[in-house]
Amino acid sequence: MENFPTRYNENKKILNSFNSWEYYFEPISKITLNEVYLSKNVIFTNDFFNEDMSLDLTTDKDLQLIFNKSIKIKKKYLESINRFTKKNFEGHKVLAVHFRGTSMKTFPNHPLPPPYYQIKGLINEAIKKYKFDKIFLVTDQLDYLNLLKKDYGKMLCYRNSYRSNKAKIFDIKPRKLHRYNMGVDALEDTLLMSKLNYLICSRSHMSRAALILKKNMNVHEIWNGINPNKISVSQFNWIMKKYIPEFMGGFKRKIDLKFIKKKSI
Question: What kind of architecture, by CATH, is found in domain 75-263?
């Protein structure tokens, strides 16, 4: 992730490294990158996924074993989320809520995120049934944060993550080291979700990772299907399904809450 940059790479050193993996995680080997490039036993590949590769960490035991054995998060981020947990979670029954907005609404061949009325309906049912007195929110959509603040007031807690109503939030520069800090936001929000026992979410890499980190979590995942592969359709599909009636192909207006216990190894 130094010579093959990701979205999170900055053009200056972070924590003394140009490698975006090392921004957030400890090295997985004592072998240095320079040594690797001197070796003949190296395979370079592109970023394609073939049909034998799993896209879901929660259903692939090999990936879970690799994660548990080799992935070590830097101490500074663990200390940060422990401070947040002590301040906001202790002494409360907390419901984690995570749902994407921004680019997920229009990306071809990606899970369709829930509109706000689906989220609100499930939160209300969860509070009534399970007596939650606090909500931990993870979302990249600024409008959703404002709606939840209006509806749930002091029950709501959240990190000061960057949020926007624009689709391409990696392509803007609203703060110093924005790409690096987008990674911090994603990592710490995911770690905090994994501290809780109940999660309402849409499908994303963050919610999937939280289920790996948490040995037993009760989760209700909203599934609205996949956006079409054609970009000319995917740009408008979500907004259309949000407003048209359910019998015409719109999103479900009422979803019954059903927590399923997920067990990782």
Answer: 3-Layer(aba) Sandwich (3.40)
